[in-house]
Write a structure and sequence with these properties.
Length: 234
C-alpha cells in the first residue's frame, strides 16, 4: 500500500530534515513517533503529496507521489496538523462540501456518507451548528471525518488525538484501528498510549532517521529509544 523509498528532505542548506527514509507498510495502522522537530509532519506531507522530497519517492497503492500525484490524491485521505475550516459552515455543510471536492456528485450519496461519518465521529448532535461554535476536539473529529470520505485505501493523519478528551481519544483510536483492518493508516503522535492502543506497527523517527520499526508492545525496545531521546532533547 505504502512504500517510502529512500526519501530525504532538505528545506535549507544546513538542515537535512529526513535522511534516506525507507519504510514499507501493508494494511494496518502505523504510528510515527518522535520528538518535536523530528520530521514526522514533513514525512506525512511528502506521503500526501503536499511537500516534494529532495530525493527518493513514495509509492501509494503503486503510484508515485512525484510523477502521478492525481492518482495518489484520489487514494488518500489526509488530515494535516493545522486544518483550516470554514467557520460559518455547519459540520454537515462542511462534510457535504468536502464530498463535492472529492467528486461525489450524487446528493443522495453525499447525504448517506455525511450521515454515517457524523455518527461514527459522534458529531450528530452538533451537525447543524456552525463550526465556529465547535470545541478543538470537535473540529479534530470533523477533520478526521473529511479525511475518511470515500473510504480511501490510505489514511494519513497528523496527530489524531490532539485536543480530544479521554473518551473521544478511545473512540478515535477504535475507529482508526477498525479502519486499519482493511486499509492502511499512518498517524503521527507524541503519545505512547495512542500507539499501544491502536497501532499494529510503530516507527521512531529521530533526527531525520528511522531509529526503530516494528510491532509495538510494552516490552518493545522503542520505549527505551524514546526515553534515551527524551533525555537528549531535555
Ligand atoms: N517549510 C519549512 N521550511 C523550513 N523548515 C521547516 C519547514 N517545515 C518544517 N521545517 C523544519 O523541519 C524540521 C521538522 O519539522 P516537522 O514539523 O516535520 O517535525 P515534527 O516531528 O512533525 O514536529 P512536531 O512534533 O513539533 O510537529 C523542524 O526543524 C522544522 O523547523
Amino acid at each position: 500500500m505504502i512504500r517510502i523509498l529512500d526519501v530525504s528532505k532538505q528545506y535549507d542548506r544546513e538542515t537535512l530534515v529526513l535522511q534516506q527514509i525507507e519504510l514499507h507498510m501493508k494494511t494496518g495502522v502505523m504510528g510515527l513517533l518522535g520528538f518535536n522537530g523530528a520530521g514526522k509532519s514533513t514525512l506525512l506531507k511528502i506521503m500526501a503529496g503536499i511537500e516534494e522530497p529532495t530525493a527518493g519517492d513514495v509509492m501509494i497503492c503503486g503510484y508515485s507521489v512525484r510523477s502521478e500525484p492525481d492518482e495518489v490524491r484520489s487514494r488518500i485521505g489526509y488530515l494535516p496538523q493545522h486544518f483550516e475550516m470554514y467557520p460559518h459552515l455547519t459540520g454537515r455543510e462542511m462534510l457535504d462540501y468536502a464530498c463535492t471536492l472529492k467528486g461525489i456528485r450524487s446528493r443522495k450519496k453525499r447525504k448517506e456518507i455525511v450521515t454515517r461519518l457524523l455518527y461514527e465521529l459522534n458529531l450528530e448532535a452538533k451537525a447543524k451548528d456552525k463550526i465556529k461554535t465547535y470545541s478543538t476536539g470537535m473540529k479534530q473529529r470533523l477533520g478526521l471525518a473529511q479525511a475518511m470520505i470515500g473510504e480511501p485505501p490510505v489514511l494519513i493523519i497528523d496527530e489524531p488525538t490532539v485536543g480530544l478528551d479521554p473518551e473521544e481519544k478511545m473512540r478515535v483510536r477504535k475507529l482508526l484501528a477498525a479502519y486499519g483492518r482493511e486499509h492502511t493508516v499512518v498517524l503521527s503522535t507524541h503519545i505512547l498510549s495512542d500507539v499501544e492502543n491502536c497501532c499494529t506497527h510503530a516507527a521512531v523517527l529521530d533526527e531525520g532517521k528511522i531509529r526503530w520499526f516494528g510491532i509495538p508492545d510494552c516490552k518493545s525496545e522503542y520505549r527505551e529509544i524514546l526515553m534515551e531521546g527524551h533525555h537528549r532533547h531535555a
